[in-house]
Amino acid sequence: MPTYLKELQQGLFTLLTNDQRIILLGEDIIDPYGGAFKVTAGLSTQFPGRLITTPIAEAGITGVAVGLALRGYVPILEIMFGDFLTLCADQIINHATKFSSMYSAVSCPLIIRSPMGGGRGYGPTHSQSLEKLFLGTPHLKIISPSNFHNPGRTIQQIVQYESNPVLFIEHKLLYSEFLQVSNEIIHVNLQSSEEGYHTAIIKNYTVGNPDLCLISYGGTSRFLPKLLTDLAVEEVRIIAVLPEVIDPAPIDILVPYAAAARRVVIAEESTADFGWAVGIAGMLYEKLWKQLDCPIKVVTSERCVIPTASEQEKEVLISALKIENAIMEVLSWL
Amino acid sequence: MSAQLEFFYEKMLLIRTFEETLLRLFSQGYLRGTVHTCIGQEACAVGIIAALNSEQDTVCSNHRGHGHFLMFSEQNMYGLFAEILGLESGICNGKGGSQHLHVTNFYSNGILGGMVPVATGIALAHKLKKENAISVVFVGDGAMAEGIIYESLNMAALWQLPLLLVVEQNQIAQSTPWTLEHGSIIEDRSPAFGVPRIAVDGNHVESVYNTAKELITQMRIDNAPRCLVLHTYRLGPHSKGDDQRSSTELAMNQEKDPLKQLEILLTQQIVTHIKMRCQKRISDMLTHFLIS
Amino acid sequence: MAITISMPLLNVNDDSAILVRWLYPEGAMVNKDEAICIVETTKSAVDLYAEANGILRHLSPTGIAYKTGTVIGFLTQSVEEEVSVLDAVVETTENPTVITPKWTRKAQILAQRFGIDLNLLAAQYPDVSITEELIKQVVAQHQSTPSAEIAIEPSLQHQHSWGITQERILILGGGGGAALVLDILSSIASQTAIGVLDNNSSLVGAKILGTDVLGDFSLVMQLWQEKKFDSLISTVVRDIDDRAAIFERFTQLGIPFANVIAPSVAIRQNVKIGTGNLIVHGGYIATGVHLGNNNFLAAGTYIEHHSVIGNHCTFGPRTSLSGRVTVADRVKFGTQVAVEPFIEIGTKSVVASGVVLTSHVPAHSIVKNTTSVVIRHAR
Ligand SMILES: Cc1ncc(C[n+]2csc(CCOP(=O)(O)OP(=O)(O)O)c2C)c(N)n1
Ligand SMILES: [Mg+2]
Question: Residue B113 CA: which ligand 1 atom is closest?
Fold first, then answer.
C-alpha cells in the first residue's frame, strides 16, 4: 500500500517528467539528502538542473520563486518547516498574491509546499500549524490533503488548474501513513469539485442518517480510521467531511452534510480561537441558522507553546480523545 | 552627440512636466492616495533604462517609479496617467495606482526592498531560458537597510545571475537623512557578496547612461550580477508637501538639477522647442482626460 | 488526579436520585464547598458541593436517575486532564452497589434525549446490551398507543414502566397560575404536565399553553385510580382556606403533591422543603430554610437563611424575608413585602403589598401599607 510520502514523490516525479515549466526549489532538497522529510528524494538525480538547493533565506527564496513564476515557470518551493512561513509572509501576501491580482493579465503560478503540525517532539518552533495565519488572504489558495486524499494527484491538479499562488500544507505525521480506502466499517467517497479537487466523505455506517457531521482537514485525518471504527461499535454514526481545499472556504460543499446531520464538530490542529474551524462554524451558523439541533463544537490544540516533552506535547495538541469528547458533548445536547 | 543630449533632455523633461502636473492635480483634488515624484532624479531613470533593450530586459521598480515607467514605456503615458487618476482605463485597471505598475517587462511594488528577490528570480528565469536578458531592479538608499536585499545579493552571486541592482542614493529616506539610516557606506555592501559595484554621479545623465551601457554589455557576456550606485538628490518632497529640509539646503542643491545641467549644454532655441513640445503633450493629455 | 463526584445516599428510601442539572458548565472553575449540581429524589432536591477547588467535568447526562455511588462527574486540576467513561468504571466497580451498565454510547445518548432511565431499562433486560434499536422500540411503544377518552398517554400508567422517569403532574386550577406551572415544566426534564383541572366548566376543553383542561376537580380521583398522573400541584391562591382545603383533602386520600420549582430558583444548602410547593422563577431559598407544604412563592421571592415557613402560605412577587423569620400557616403576603430579621408572623395574617415589617405580627392580623403616615411636619 502506498504511503502519503510515496504518492507525493510520485506526483512530483510525474510533474517533472511531463511539464518543463516545473522547477523545485528549497533548502536541502537535492540528493543524497533529498529534503528534510525526503519528499524530493531521488528527484535531483533523475532530473538534473530541475531542482535548486537554496541558501537558508526563506524570504529571499520565496521572492526568487515569485520571479520565476512571473516569467513562465511553475516553481514548487519547499519551506522545510511550516513554522518558517512567517519569514515568507511578505513575499506571499504583498508580492505573489498581489501580482496576480493588481496587475492586469499577469499570472503567478507559485506553489509553496510545507510540512506543518506537531506530534514528533520538535518543540515550540517546529510543530505549529501556521496555515491559520494565511487564511483569508485574497488570491491565495490553501490546500491541505489528508491521507484520505492522494497528495500526488492533488499537486498535479494544482499545476494544471491554478495560475495563482497556492500554499500546499502537508502534515509531518501523514508522510508515513498509508492512504486510506474503504473497508468493512469505513466507507470513503471522494467528491470532486468543478476544479477537480477532492473532498473526502467518510462514513462509519451504511444505513440511516448520520448522528453527527465531523468537519476537518489535513493531518487530523490520522485519528479518523480508529476513532470512526470505535464509534461504529458504539452505534454512533459519523459522517466525516475532509475538504482538501481549505481556503477559500469550501462552505458550499460542507453545508449539505452539516444540514443533514444537524450536529457538527469541527476539528483543527491549530491553536484555539480565530482559526479555520471557528471561521467555518461562523459560516455554517449563517447558512444553517435554526436548522441545527445544537451549537457547533470546535476542537483545536491549546493556545500555548507546543512543548517538546512527549507527555506535555500530547496534552497540548489535538487528539483522538479530544475529538471524541467533543463528539459526545455535541450528541448529548437534548 | 547633441542628438543624444536632446533625446535625454526631452525624456527627462517629459517626466518632470508629467510629475509636476501630478503635484498640481494633487493639490487641486484630482488625485487621491499618494504619489512619489522623482523630481531631481530623472537622470537615473533615463540613463539606465535608455541602456536597456525593453523587448528582452526586465525592470522592477519601487514606490518612486513614474520616471522609470515613462522611460520604459512612454507609449503607455496615458495608461499611467489613468492609473494614477484611479480610472479603470489605467494600465492596472485602477487597482494598482501610483506605486503598483505593470506593462510587459515592467513591474513595480510599494514594499521597499521586496522586489529585489523577485528581480533575482526573474534573473534566474532569464538565465535558465538562456534569454541573454538583464533583470534590473531599482531601490533607494533607505531600502538598502532591508535584509531581503542581502539574501538576494547572496543568491545572485551564488548562482551568477544577470541582476543589476541600481541604488538611487538620494541621501534621504522619507524624512531621514541617510547618515541616520546606515552605519557604513552603501558602496561597500555588494562587493562583500561578490557582486561588483560602480558608483557614478546620478544627476549626470550621460555618465549614468555610459556606465549602464558598459555594465550591461559586460553582463550580457558574463551573465553575472552588478550593483550600480547613483549619487543623486531628491529635489521634491517625499510624496506631496512633506519636506522638512531647509530652503537653504534645497537651494544649494538646485544646481545639481540634471535638467539644468543639460540646458547649459543645449542651445536656448532647442531647449525652448523641447519645452513647448513636452508642455503640449501634457496639455493634450489633460484635455484628453477633460482636466483643465 | 481527578476527584470523582458521585451520587450520594440522599435518604433511606431512595437508592437512586436524578441528576437534575449541573450548576456550572463543563470546564468551569469551581471552588471547594460551592454547590455544583442539583440532584433530586422523589422527596426533595438538594445540592452537591465541591470537595475541592477544580475544573468541573460532567460525565453523566442530566435528567437521568443514577444509583447511589455512581460517578457522575469529576473535578480535575487542569483543563487538559483527560477523563473518560472508562476511568469512571474502573473507579466504581469496587463499589458493590454500582451496576456496570451495558449499553452503547448511542443508546446512552438517546436515553438521555428521551428521558429514559437506562439503569431501570437494563434491569428489565438483564442479559442484552442495550442498543439504539431497543431504545427506539421503547419510545415507539409509548408513543403509539393513543387514548380514546382523554388525551393522556395510557402507556405511562405505571410509573417507571419503560424506565421513563418523568413525574406526571396534574395541575389544579386553570387560571394564570396554571400557565406559570406549564411554563416552568417546559424547562424541567424530569417533570411533565398531563392536564389541568378547573371547576369553571366553561374552561373545560380549552388548552393552556398546549395542555388540555380535562374537567373539574371531581376527575382527580378517577385519573388517580387510572394511574394517569403521579402527583398534583395546586395553583389556587385567591382563597387561602380553599387552597389549604384542597391540599388536605387529596393528601388524606393518599394522592401526593409535587414540588414545582423553576430552574432559576436558587435552593441552597440544608434547605428542607415539604410537598405541594410552587416556586416561580428568580426565587432564592437560603441555607437552613424550612419550607412546609403547599406554599406558593411568586417570582423573585427571597427567603433568607434559617427562616421557617409553615404551610399554605402565598407570597406576592419580590417579597423578601430576612434571616430567621418565622411564618406560621396560611399567611398571605402581597407584592414586595419586606420583613426584618427575627420577625414572627402569626397564623392567618395578611400583609399588604409594599409593607416593611419591623415588628412581630400576631395571629389573624391585617397589616396595611404605612407609607402615607406623616413622619414629621416641616415648618
Ligand atoms: C517595507 C516598507 N517599509 C516602509 C515603507 C514606507 N516608505 C515608503 S518610501 C520610504 C522611504 C524610502 O526611502 P528610499 O529607499 O531611500 O527611497 P526614496 O524615497 O528616497 O526614493 C518609506 C519609509 C514602505 N513602503 N515599505
Ligand atoms: Mg532615498
Answer: 1
SS3 at position B164 = strand
Number of folded domains that form chain A: 2
- Decide: B64 in ligand 1 pocket, CB within 6 A: yes
pTM for this structure?
A: 0.70
Asked whether residue C153 is domain-assigned, the answer is: no
Residue A84 within any structural domain of the chain: yes
Q: Mutate which of B36, B63, B168, B235 to test ligand 1's pocket (most atoms within 8 Å of Cβ)?
A: B63
Q: For the domain that residue A9 is a member of, what is the CATH number?
A: 3.40.50.970
Residue from C104, C106, C133, C190 to probe the interface with A (highest A Cβ count within 10 Å): C106
Residue A39 lies in a domain: yes
Tell me if B142 CB under 6 Å of ligand 1: yes
The answer to whether C and B touch (≥3 CB pairs < 8 Å) is: no
Tell me the per-residue pLDDT of C296-345, one tens digit each, with 9 for 90 and over: 999 999 999 999 999 999 999 999 999 999 999 999 999 999 999 999 99
Residue labelled with grid coordinates 553575472: B224
Phi and psi dihedrals of C136, rounded to 5? -65, -40
ipTM score: 0.94
